[in-house]
Amino acid sequence: MAEVQGHRARKRFGQNFLRDPNVIRRIVVTIDPKPGEHLVEIGPGLGALTEPLIEAAGQLTAIELDRDLAARLRQRFPAERLRLIEADALRFDFASLPAPLRVVGNLPYNVSTPLLFHLADYADRIADMTFMLQKEVVERMAAAPDSAAYGRLSVMLQQRFAVRKCFDVPPGAFVPTPKVTSSIVRLTPLPAGTHTLEDPERFSRLVAAAFNQRRKTLRNALKASIPDPALFVQAGIDPNARAETLAVEDFVRLANVLAHAPASGA
């Protein structure tokens, strides 16, 4: 692996360090940090974004898993400006931080999807999130129904957030150079009550099952959990439709009908 500023990038942590000053500047402008806001950076790495964010906001909380990088960051930034937490963001309790949170970061691509699902559980404590991710993942996050990219990730995130792709970042902006193009994405929590769920766990299982066999009709893909087609009709859903044609609110409505159905298996 490549060595950057004396640090050898670790493949198991999915480390690709941002180095292009123009891209860094554009990301900071997109985040638009203000003094006094509670910024939380996931995976600060060598501090390419950390420094300008601290300059703009005054202080920052950062979550870093790599002990060597954490030690470097402690040497570089005073504790009153950088609150550094050595932890795995996938397991970190974001409720332990004072809300509202503005979460940012160049997320490791190998854990991006489970990390996004983990953060979604704290949507009520988050003001917004701005991330750099693999372009393909961002396109799936922001996809609309009836498109090839639309799937489980789209529905699960759009149930809680407005998702907007901001701009692309070429591979040459990083060291080591990844094989894929990246994108900046902004997620903003939807107003309370936008997509209210009776049973979030049931919704999650329903969406997963529907897209697990996305080429099948909903009647066939969900027959194990919805044996009675009348429940589709009750939710205003065509049982012969496919998962990719349903909007987020359709999945929410179907899940809520199932939550009140007797002996429903979903």
TrEMBL record:
Its EC top class is transferase
**Major subcellular location class:** cytoplasm
| InterPro entries listed in its UniProt record | KsgA/Erm (IPR001737), rRNA_Ade_diMease-like_C (IPR023165), rRNA_Ade_Mease_Trfase_CS (IPR020596), rRNA_Ade_methylase_Trfase_N (IPR020598), rRNA_adenine_dimethylase (IPR011530), SAM-dependent_MTases_sf (IPR029063)
The protein's job, in short, is: Specifically dimethylates two adjacent adenosines (A1518 and A1519) in the loop of a conserved hairpin near the 3'-end of 16S rRNA in the 30S particle. May play a critical role in biogenesis of 30S subunits.
Start and end residues of each Ribosomal RNA adenine methylase transferase N-terminal domain: 23-191
Family, as annotated? Belongs to the class I-like SAM-binding methyltransferase superfamily. rRNA adenine N(6)-methyltransferase family. RsmA subfamily.
Does the UniProt entry include the keyword GTP-binding?
no
Keywords noted in UniProt: Cytoplasm, Methyltransferase, RNA-binding, rRNA processing, S-adenosyl-L-methionine, Transferase
User: Can you say where in the cell this protein is located?
Assistant: Cytoplasm
Which PANTHER family does this UniProt record tie to the protein?
Answer: DIMETHYLADENOSINE TRANSFERASE (PTHR11727), DIMETHYLADENOSINE TRANSFERASE-RELATED (PTHR11727:SF7)
**Residues binding S-adenosyl-L-methionine:** 16, 18, 43, 64, 88, 106
Q: Which reaction does it catalyse?
A: adenosine(1518)/adenosine(1519) in 16S rRNA + 4 S-adenosyl-L-methionine = N(6)-dimethyladenosine(1518)/N(6)-dimethyladenosine(1519) in 16S rRNA + 4 S-adenosyl-L-homocysteine + 4 H(+)
CDD domains for this protein? AdoMet_MTases (cd02440)
Q: What is the name listed in the Swiss-Prot or TrEMBL entry for this protein?
A: Ribosomal RNA small subunit methyltransferase A
Q: Name one Pfam family in it.
A: RrnaAD
